[in-house]
Design goal:
Organism: Rugosimonospora africana
Helix content: 40-55%
Number of helices: 8
CATH architecture of the largest domain: Orthogonal Bundle
Strand order of the largest sheet: 1-2-3-5-4
Structural class: alpha+beta
CATH superfamily of the largest domain: Transferase(Phosphotransferase) domain 1
Pfam family, one: APH
Strand content: 15-25%
Protein name: Aminoglycoside phosphotransferase domain-containing protein
Bound molecules: adenosine-5'-triphosphate, magnesium ion
Length: 216
């Protein structure tokens, strides 16, 4: 019987053995599209878990050691400005790759959920997980989504991590390539349409967008 390891908003993750995990969607979603993206970017040297099999709701992949970037930020082993810069660098590396499907040079693989809980600081470096939303599109949309996700926490006065998130957004925006502000409206619309967003989170979207538009 696999051992439960973690529970995300949409998936349960089980340890299969010391080297592999099973990630299973609870909502019946199919993993084949994200497994293809992971295999594609992994083959080009981008840090993702090795995919062993993808079948229906189940993805079997390399088990990563180390904390998530969020855990490292919360425990204080990672400075938020550094975390923001690391996230920006992961975007830069991802967007440097040619798209898998599109022939339009402005279109790249985009993750669209590249926040500190979806980065694991493993012994082989920062590795990006949770490719459910991955698709192809403008890199600015990807960076706008990351900035927006962090800004939603930064502008929430009730959130314990608000200050950490604000420092993370500043570090991220200062280091990001392109201009996330160009895709901010589209990112707000995408985020607003996310069924996993709570009503409180949705209410903070305009303030979060304003923080990115004028971060100082
Ligand atoms: N390959 C892996 N190795 C070790 N732990 C993992 C791995 N993949 C995921 N995890 C753990 O499981 C958690 C949830 O994974 P993931 O983000 O893929 O699920 P999710 O349900 O899509 O999450 P979200 O809540 O972001 O929607 C991660 O934060 C991490 O702690
Ligand atoms: Mg996740």
């Amino acid at each position: 019987m696999p051992t439960p390891l973690a529970r995300g908003r949409s998936a349960d993750v089980f340890a299969l053995d010391s080297g592999r995990v099973l990630r299973r969607y609870r909502d019946g979603a199919d993993v084949s599209a994200e497994a293809e993206v992971m295999a594609y970017v992994g083959g080009l040297g981008f840090p993702v878990p090795r995919v062993d099999s993808a079948d229906g709701t189940d993805l079997v992949m390399e088990r990563l050691d180390g904390p998530t970037m969020l855990d490292a930020l919360v425990s204080g082993t990672l400075d938020p400005a550094d975390g923001g810069r690391q996230l920006a660098d992961l975007h830069t590396r991802l967007h440097a790759l040619p798209a898998r499907l599109s022939r339009d040079p402005a279109v790249r693989v985009v993750h669209l959920d590249l926040h500190p809980q979806n980065v694991m600081l493993s012994s082989r470096g920062a590795v990006v997980i949770d490719w459910r939303n991955a698709t192809e599109g403008p890199p600015d949309l990807d960076t706008a989504m990351t900035a927006l996700i962090m800004a939603q926490i930064a502008v929430d006065p009730a959130h314990d991590l608000a200050e950490l998130a604000a420092a993370g957004v500043r570090g991220f925006l200062a280091r990001s390539d392109g201009d996330p502000r160009r895709a901010l409206d589209e990112a707000v619309a995408l985020r607003a349409a996310d069924p996993n967003l709570t009503r409180d989170e949705a209410r903070l979207l305009p303030a979060a967008a304003a923080l990115i538009a004028a971060p100082e």
